[in-house]
Design a protein that fits this description.
It is found in: Mitochondrion. This protein is of the alpha/beta class. The protein folds into 2 domains: 165 residues, Rossmann fold (3-Layer(aba) Sandwich); 105 residues, SIR2/SIRT2 'Small Domain'. The protein contains 10 helices and 11 strands. A 6-stranded parallel β-sheet has the order 5-4-1-9-10-11, with helices on both faces. Strands 7-6-8 form a 3-stranded antiparallel β-sheet, covered by helices on one side. The protein has a two-stranded antiparallel sheet with strand order 2-3. Helix 6 packs parallel to helix 10. The protein is elongated and about 60 Å long. The two termini are 28 Å apart. It binds ligand BV8 and zinc ion. Ligand BV8 binds next to helix 2 and strand 10.
Length: 279
């Protein structure tokens, strides 16, 4: 018979035996923390669709506008907290590693750039699309952590999402600049924009986690953006058990062994609760 099961005990049995669990996440895992998702209303900022600003072309044309957009998201996320799903995933990683001395592992492979998995306690995290809190110098290519709030004086108070916010372009010299001694190059957010390739070392880390995976949870993603959207279906095609946790079915649901409808702050902790119980 076609279609996924919602048999939580069957999933728990699989997870209790699994050695290399991968948790693939999207914006939905942070939704209940108050971080807007890309679908629905959350996908807009001023009069723009997020997708139209998350491109190299937009940055080329108006770095000031794109920096306002990312500054807004940096500041917004700093006011939010990890939720029960982030914590349950981090707790499962810790307990697995503790009881098995590292033989059993859980790795998060996230599309999110909000850093909430790490703030929730996860250590093994692959950020497929980069991070709001890293910068990338357009001149010397230096990648640096940056949690400054604001990231530069000129962006203080800028980035308000309402369409009629003042958006006098900030002169390039006052946008975030590289701190490497004599570089001073214009910084960009270290995120993967649409039309850009994912970074080779990131792809390698994701492939390493996925190649050993023997059980996969897919949490809060619409499975629309590639190549991230390809990972879970590719596992399912190799008969690796995949459990999807989402408010609603997605375009990928039919490929998966399990689908658990509902808010992931309820469904994910339930699924991971007994992960280290002896079988
Ligand atoms: C690339 C960083 C090679 C920036 C992001 C046509 C067909 C197919 C592909 C393409 C195409 N045209 C272009 C492409 C390629 C493109 C792509 O896939 N486009 C899509 C739109 C079709 N991909 C790329 O460009 C990628 N690069 O392909 O390189 C290449 C090179 C040159 C030219 C072409 C190709 C790079 C993609 C990375 C883009 N960067 N983020 C930033 O964040 O600003 S993508 C960004 O959007 C996110 O990272 C994420 O990946 C995506 C949003 O998806 P989700 O995370 O799933 O979030 P969403 O809001 O959609 O869904 C939320 C889900 O949660 C929903 O299902 C909802 O029901 C659920 N939910 C909500 N609340 C809860 C919940 N579930 C449970 N509990 C809840 N409480
Ligand atoms: Zn530089």
């Amino acid at each position: 018979m076609g279609g996924p099961s919602a048999d939580l005990n069957a999933l728990k049995g699989i997870l209790q035996k699994a050695k290399r669990i991968v948790v693939l996440t999207g914006a939905g895992v942070s939704a209940e923390s108050g971080v807007p998702t890309f679908r629905g209303s959350g996908g807009f900022w001023r009069t723009y669709k997020s997708q139209d600003l998350a491109t190299a072309g937009a940055f080329e044309r108006s770095p000031s506008l794109v920096w306002e957009f990312y500054h807004y998201r940096r500041e917004l996320v700093l006011t939010k907290q990890p939720n029960k799903a982030h914590h349950a995933i981090a707790e499962a990683e810790r307990r697995l590693s503790e009881v098995s001395g590292g033989v059993r592992q859980l790795t998060v492979v996230t599309q999110n750039i909000d850093g909430l998995h790490q703030r929730g306690g996860s250590n093994r995290v692959v950020e497929l699309h980069g991070s709001l809190y890293k910068t990338w110098c357009t001149k010397c290519r230096d990648i640096a952590e940056n949690t400054d709030s604001p990231i530069c004086p000129a962006l203080e108070g800028r980035g308000a999402p309402d369409p009629d916010s003042p958006s006098e372009p900030i002169p390039s010299k006052d946008l975030p600049r590289c701190r490497k001694d004599d570089c001073r190059g214009l910084l960009r957010p270290y995120v993967v924009w649409f039309g850009e390739n994912l970074h080779p070392e990131t792809l390698q880390r994701a492939d390493d986690a996925l190649s050993e995976c023997d059980a996969c949870l897919v949490v809060g993603t619409s499975s629309v953006v590639y190549p991230a959207a390809m990972y879970a279906p590719a596992l399912a095609a190799r008969n690796i058990p995949v459990a999807e946790f989402n408010l609603e079915p997605t375009s990928a649901t039919y490929d998966f062994m399990f689908h658990f409808p509902g808010p992931c702050t309820q469904t994910v902790p339930e699924a991971l609760a007994s992960i280290t119980d002896s079988q």
